[in-house]
Input
Amino acid sequence: MISAFQQDGIEVLRIERPEKANSLTGAMLARLTEEFDRIAQGQSNAVILTAAGRVFSAGADLDEAQAGLTTSPEWERLSARIATMPCLTIAALNGTLAGGAFGMVLACDLRVAVPGAEFFYPVMKRGFLPQPGDARRMTVLIGPARAKMILMAGARIDAAQAQSWGLVDRIATDPVAAARELAADCVGASTDHVMAIKGLIYQP
Output
């Protein structure tokens, strides 16, 4: 349910469970972490995270959520791995982003979304806490008041509003193509140069 391939010097990881709105199981979270670990040990200067179908991810698989997935350490392990990658990481959001799937996206360096994408994280009404890293990274990106709008007031925002808030960096009908354009300079640079510049920029 996770595919991994390299094209034109860019690593691409794709969530492939469109029949379940790309909801995430514990095994999928672990596989994503393993793939990012593999990429971190190589010489790739950029990685794109995307998904199949019309939804990026609905968050945790419902059956596994009822069995305790929402409090699994795998969420934080994955987002921490992405946040410390020695290369440029871009989330190419092919559709709506919801719930715990926010973590991996917030941990990426850049985010590109299709115009029809929506963003919501309904932890308040469901009685769950967001992952600590999710709340922290969201606050760094959009500020405390807007983070409260999403996490506490249950705001459901569209791509245009997400961009105006700073949650999304670019809107494109083909987010993977747009992500490739953003990664082009990194692909043409040395790995040491990419790591040096990234090291100069604060990483939440």
Notes: The beta strands are 2-7, 10-15, 46-51, 55-57, 88-93, 96-98, 110-113, 118-120, 157-158, 170-171.
